Amino acid sequence: MSPLSTSNSDLILAKENVHHLTYFPFHGLAGCIRTTLVLLGEPYEDHTLSFKEWMAQKSLTPFGHIPVLREVTKCGKSFEIAEISAIEFFLAKRSGNLLGKDFWEESQIRMFHSSTHALFTFLVHTVVQSPQSDRAAFLARFKKTNLPQWIRSHEKYLVANGSNGHYVGDQLSIADIKTASVIEHLINLTNGEGETPLISEELTPAIMAVKSNLEKHPQYAGWRTSQQYQEFTNGNLRFFGF
Ligand SMILES: N[C@@H](CCC(=O)N[C@@H](CS)C(=O)NCC(=O)O)C(=O)O
Predict the structure, then answer these.
(1) GO biological process: what's one of them (predicted)?
(2) Pocket test for ligand 1, best of 34, 65, 239 (most atoms within 8 A of CB)
(3) Which among 22, 37, 151, 180 is least surrounded, fewest beta carbons within 10 Å?
């Protein structure tokens, strides 16, 4: 990867570029990226890897992890970008309207996004990386401390912004997409038998408004009812259990 020259920067902003996302066949940590790609409505190809295919490709990726986004321009030049947050902000900036109206709005959007990203990566990484024998204790602690703390603060800030389904102002941002893309997994995590639900229309209406607001978007609604979305949901339930 070489630093972008001005001309590369121009090339990368071209609307006809094809976005190629490589990840596993589940939502995992790629929900916000896939949602943003769907909302952009630009040419986009989703490449999923089995674990065997991944092991063969791991050393070829920038940091040995996926997702990785490859941007292919009309003239065949290709640019690669890795790291979830970097990809999300790359797409948000490229979209031209997911980072607020000014620097302060963007800073707040980054703050809310970062809080949700930290919560969800902590959950996914610990579930995947901790020994099976430690998982129940980890999940119990997550549901008792980390998740309620996130819910309390996010509900509070969303109410303060008027419970309009947005964190900042009255327009969709990458922070809204981030929350909307993790919420159904957090609900699955806390809605099992014998569990105490923590997120619902009654308990957290402002958080739920972020989800329902995004679901009004025809492209997103269409993707959620697609077979591919359902397959990724099934993959998530099999692999993570939420
Ligand atoms: N720091 C990376 C972490 C991404 C990550 O954890 N990816 C997991 C999948 S959810 C992965 O690549 N797992 C396979 C591996 O590490 O070999 C990012 O932000 O993109």
Answers:
(1) glutathione metabolic process
(2) 65
(3) 151
